[in-house]
């Protein structure tokens, strides 16, 4: 038994390590509550009387050697920390912290919100899972209306009344149902359409809807508002409104901004015309106002809707819409510096 303890003493004397963990393990092994030292002390009463003295001295030696060894190694470790800076030197530069970045869609969405909030628009949101009334019927698109086919719809399971909204115009309806004019609101959000995924289209994307309802709102107010917007966002103030058709607005128009033809990219994105279509708009159809409980004789208003993904691609020269949902950090980290 005494020899065995001496072996342990030799082993401790040889032991060296600069690992905090290994030193602690050594302490637990010998000096811990369930450590060997306590085992040997417990053994003491079974040792024959003539060996008790030597046995006692040896386990005391074991205790001293272990305690000194552990203290020495700990001290060396602390000194090393200060001298060599290998461990936790406070003057070392800190570990780099990986900062995330805002998604380009969020950046552009926030820019759009910021611009409209400066002229009194608030922000409203609605559900992505919608019912037929808010997505279609209230917007002057009754059942069997051919214009429903303009937007290929995802229906939820077999219930044709529940669907993934195809546009944020559904939020117009909800907002008018729940608020009285004057109304000035923009509604950003994600929308879904059953379309083949390619570089130019996706089955989900983002829109911002705008709605302005008050007494005596005119088409001139609409144009002025949109011109303010394009000037602020693109730095381009020349716009044109081309007659178009949307069931929920009358008259309706497509908005083009004059982008210019300075670079090769300008030719590409404007197909050589210099003009770029950026949104749809119009005067809210009186039927829509009535469907939402607003007196169309007293109030009029305008609405507009645009795709955030498309505008993001324009502003950041992104040529494939799929990049916006693939979450490739090599793409996303390029937006690190943007707010
Ligand atoms: N909802 C239309 C779409 O998704 C966009 C739109 C056009 C919204 C005209 C409007 C509007 O509010 O007046 O294509």
From TrEMBL:
- Co-factor note (free text): Binds 2 magnesium ions per tetramer.
What PROSITE patterns does this protein map onto? Answer: AA_TRNA_LIGASE_II (PS50862)
GO CC field: cytoplasm
In Gene Ontology terms, what is a biological process of this protein?
A: phenylalanyl-tRNA aminoacylation
Ranges for domain Aminoacyl-transfer RNA synthetases class-II family profile come to: 108-334
| Reaction equation(s) it catalyzes | tRNA(Phe) + L-phenylalanine + ATP = L-phenylalanyl-tRNA(Phe) + AMP + diphosphate + H(+)
Which cofactors does this protein require? Mg(2+)
The residues that cross the membrane are none
Write one Pfam family the protein is assigned to.
Answer: Phe_tRNA-synt_N
UniProt xrefs under InterPro entries: aa-tRNA-synth_II (IPR006195), aa-tRNA-synth_II/BPL/LPL (IPR045864), Phe-tRNA-synth_IIc_asu (IPR004529), Phe-tRNA_ligase_II_N (IPR004188), Phe_tRNA_ligase_alpha1_bac (IPR022911), Phenylalanyl-tRNA_Synthase (IPR002319), tRNA-bd_arm (IPR010978)
Q: Which top EC class is named for this enzyme in its record? A: ligase
Tell me which EC number(s) this protein carries.
Answer: 6.1.1.20
Q: Name one GO molecular function term.
A: magnesium ion binding
- Which keywords, in A-to-Z order, does the entry hold? Aminoacyl-tRNA synthetase, ATP-binding, Cytoplasm, Ligase, Magnesium, Metal-binding, Nucleotide-binding, Protein biosynthesis
Q: What PANTHER family does UniProt report for this protein, alphabetically?
A: PHENYLALANINE--TRNA LIGASE, MITOCHONDRIAL, PHENYLALANYL-TRNA SYNTHETASE
Describe its assembly: Tetramer of two alpha and two beta subunits.
Q: Which family does it belong to?
A: Belongs to the class-II aminoacyl-tRNA synthetase family. Phe-tRNA synthetase alpha subunit type 1 subfamily.
Annotated HAMAP family? Phe_tRNA_synth_alpha1 (MF_00281)
Q: What is this protein called?
A: Phenylalanine--tRNA ligase alpha subunit
Give the organism, scientific name: Cellulophaga tyrosinoxydans
């Amino acid at each position: 038994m005494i020899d065995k303890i001496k072996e342990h003493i030799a082993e401790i004397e040889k032991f060296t390590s600069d690992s905090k963990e290994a030193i602690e393990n050594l302490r637990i092994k010998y000096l811990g509550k369930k450590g060997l030292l306590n085992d040997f002390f417990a053994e003491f009463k079974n040792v024959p009387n003539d060996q008790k003295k030597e046995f006692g001295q040896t386990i005391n030696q074991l205790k001293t050697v272990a305690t000194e060894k552990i203290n020495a190694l700990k001290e060396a470790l602390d000194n090393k920390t200060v001298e060599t800076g290998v461990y936790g030197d406070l003057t070392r530069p800190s570990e780099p912290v990986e900062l995330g970045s805002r998604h380009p869609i969020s950046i552009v969405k926030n820019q759009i919100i910021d611009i409209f909030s400066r002229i009194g628009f608030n922000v409203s949101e609605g559900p992505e899972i919608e019912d037929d009334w808010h997505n279609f019927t209230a917007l002057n698109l009754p059942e069997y209306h051919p214009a429903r086919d303009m937007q290929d719809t995802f229906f939820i399971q077999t219930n044709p009344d529940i669907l993934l909204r195809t546009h944020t115009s559904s939020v117009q309806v909800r907002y008018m149902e729940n608020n009285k004019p004057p109304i000035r609101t923009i509604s950003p959000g994600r929308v879904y359409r059953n379309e083949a995924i390619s570089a130019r289209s996706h089955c989900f994307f983002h829109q911002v809807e705008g709605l302005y309802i008050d007494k005596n709102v005119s088409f001139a107010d609409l144009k002025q508002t949109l011109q303010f917007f394009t000037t602020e966002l693109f730095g381009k103030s020349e716009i044109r409104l081309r007659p178009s058709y949307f069931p929920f607005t009358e008259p309706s128009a497509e908005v083009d901004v004059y982008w210019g033809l300075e670079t090769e990219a300008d030719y590409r994105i404007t197909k050589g015309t210099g003009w770029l279509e950026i949104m749809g708009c119009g005067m809210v159809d009186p039927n829509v106002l009535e469907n939402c409980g607003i007196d169309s004789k007293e109030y009029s208003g305008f609405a507009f809707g645009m795709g955030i993904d498309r505008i993001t691609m324009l502003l950041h020269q992104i040529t494939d819409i799929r990049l916006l949902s693939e979450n490739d950090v090599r793409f996303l980290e390029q937006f690190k510096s943007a707010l």
